[in-house]
Design goal:
The structure holds 2 protein chains of 2 kinds. By secondary structure, chain A is mainly α. In chain A, 66% of the residues lie in helices and 4% in strands. Chain A is globular and about 60 Å long. The chains are: A mainly alpha, B mainly alpha. Chains A and B meet through α4, α5 and α6 of A and α2 and α3 of B.
Chain lengths: 338, 170
């Protein structure tokens, strides 16, 4: 019980810090891509900028426009943030560790349907965005909310189907077992990561994940050139900050999931003394997540936004058939081999 | 013991959500009440040891079907409903009928021998057993159901497409 509580507090602390510093990373990387410096004033390299931003959000005036539908207007950012933070609870970040005589897995709770829980929780996150758009009672918000819910429902199908291939290969819904199924090597030097047999699925997952988290090039729900700020146009202060945090928490969840399902989880060379061997898996896992987040930001700094009909056509006419074809081929090969 | 208390709590949440669904006048509040009902049902499945069914309940019903409901309500911008006084037939026959029905059901369940509570986890719950049942023991009903759903989808497409076809010919 106590161990679980400690793990929950630790996981929340790490996740929220990671959220804050992903924002910093994004501003820094996009800044350098656009030949500017990004934040530099607060602390060395602008490292204290997230703290300053947090303080600013708390002290901003919390406006509630008179025309909103209040119960849902207030509930929407909470729904978005709660579901974004919940999914971390089933994500394993490393092997079992021994801390002061207590054996515990580096995971808040190990459930045998971990992947399904993440899919379920993230699919509920749509409500935050959709209700924010509707309850704000403003045309920009409504359009943003409509776009977001249609986009997230559409891409969820491709996302789910792209994961089925991985499930067939590993034969389990448990994220820990999926990682264990990827240990070992092909031909003695290529690691048995799912990204090699399932590279099409990885590509589909990558695309669908960008759409699910409403990121460039699929950030139509908050396209600032046409919708002001989309579904969170009418929000200010901490309520806006909650949407912001939810978006980055979702990015981190997606990055963790990609590392676990396709990139071998926390596998990596272990060396040195006992304590280093315990910490290294965490480092390798963090490194994968970092690389994934970096690619996210890189894409944002590089690609222009899609048009909405292009987005829908891409999801339904390209990603979905591709995901189904990949699934059929994977199933056939696995069935023929067994 | 904790299981039973949680089961009762979620059961009450489920019933409260269902009643709220009927009482609310605004469609979006009703739809959200239905989401609560679905979530509470998923929790009940989870407590019964059917974790796969619980997850599917959340992903399919709460996560996809109800999002589409909310989407349609938002798109049509449906206003608040007006409550009628209710029909007299429903009041005079419906409520006594419901009471008699539930008493009968309780009597049958309590007196019939061989009916007893199933311990949690005794029924097939893991995805593997469920998959075996669906694709082996009940393959034919499963496939027939899927064809039925397909027919319904095609029917919906045909019905919506017919309205536009004369305009194209002109």
């Amino acid at each position: 019980m106590l161990v679980s509580a400690v793990k929950i507090v630790l996981a929340m602390f790490v996740l929220l810090t990671a959220v804050a510093y992903t924002v910093w990373l994004e501003r820094k990387v996009v800044g350098h891509i656009q030949n500017r410096w990004g934040p530099t004033r607060v602390g060395p390299f602008g490292l204290l900028q997230p703290l300053a931003d947090g303080v600013k959000f708390i002290f901003k005036e919390d406006l509630t426009p008179p025309h909103v539908y209040k119960p849902l207007y207030i509930a929407a950012p909470m729904i978005a943030l709660i579901f974004a933070l919940t999914s971390i609870s089933v994500i394993p970040v490393g092997n079992w560790v021994n801390v002061g005589g207590i054996q515990t897995p580096l995971q808040i709770t190990d459930v045998n349907i971990g992947l399904l829980i993440i899919l379920g929780v993230t699919s509920l996150g749509v409500y935050g965005v959709a209700l924010a758009g509707w309850s704000s009672n403003s045309k920009y918000s409504l359009l943003g909310g409509l776009r977001a819910s249609a986009q997230m429902v559409s891409y969820e199908i491709a996302l789910g189907l792209s994961l089925v291939g991985v499930l067939i290969l590993s034969g389990s819904f448990s994220l820990r077992e999926i990682v264990q199924a990827q240990s070992g090597t092909y031909l003695g030097f290529i690691p048995r990561w799912n990204i090699f047999p399932q590279f099409i699925a990885f590509f589909i997952y990558l695309m669908a994940a960008y759409a699910e988290t409403n990121r460039v090039p699929f950030d139509l729900p908050e396209a600032e050139t046409e919708l002001v700020a989309g579904y969170h146009t009418e929000y200010s202060s901490m309520k806006f900050a909650m949407f912001f945090m939810a978006e980055y928490a979702n990015m981190i969840t997606v990055a963790c999931l990609a590392s676990l399902l396709f990139l071998g989880g926390w596998a990596g060379p272990l060396f040195g003394p006992e304590i280093l061997r315990d910490v290294l898996p965490l480092f390798w896992f963090g490194l994968r997540v970092f690389v994934f987040l970096f690619v996210y930001i890189w894409v944002r700094g590089t690609l222009p936004r899609f048009r909405y009909d292009q987005l829908m056509a891409f999801g339904w006419k390209f990603l979905l058939p591709l995901a189904i074809a990949n699934l059929v081929i994977t199933a056939l090969i696995v069935a023929l081999n067994s | 013991m904790l299981h039973l208390i949680l089961f009762l709590i979620f059961g009450m949440v489920c019933v409260a959500g269902a009643i709220n669904l009927l009482v609310q006048t605004h469609p979006i509040n009703s739809a959200l009440s239905l989401v609560v009902v679905m979530g509470a049902l998923a929790a009940e499945f989870l407590l019964l040891g059917a974790e796969f069914v619980a997850a599917v309940q959340v992903i399919v019903y709460a996560g996809a079907v109800m999002v589409l409901f909310v989407f349609v309500i938002m798109l049509l911008n449906a206003g608040t409903e007006e409550h009628t006084n209710g029909s007299r037939v429903a009041l005079r026959i419906g409520i006594p009928g419901m009471l008699i029905g539930s008493v009968l059901l309780a009597w049958v369940l309590l007196t019939r021998s061989g009916t007893h509570a199933v311990p949690a986890g005794a029924l097939p719950g893991p995805p593997k057993t469920l998959g075996w049942l669906l694709f082996h023991d009940y393959l034919l009903p499963f496939e027939i159901t899927s064809v039925l759903v397909l027919i319904a989808i095609m029917g919906a497409v045909v019905l919506t497409a017919r309205a536009e076809s004369p305009r194209k010919e002109n």
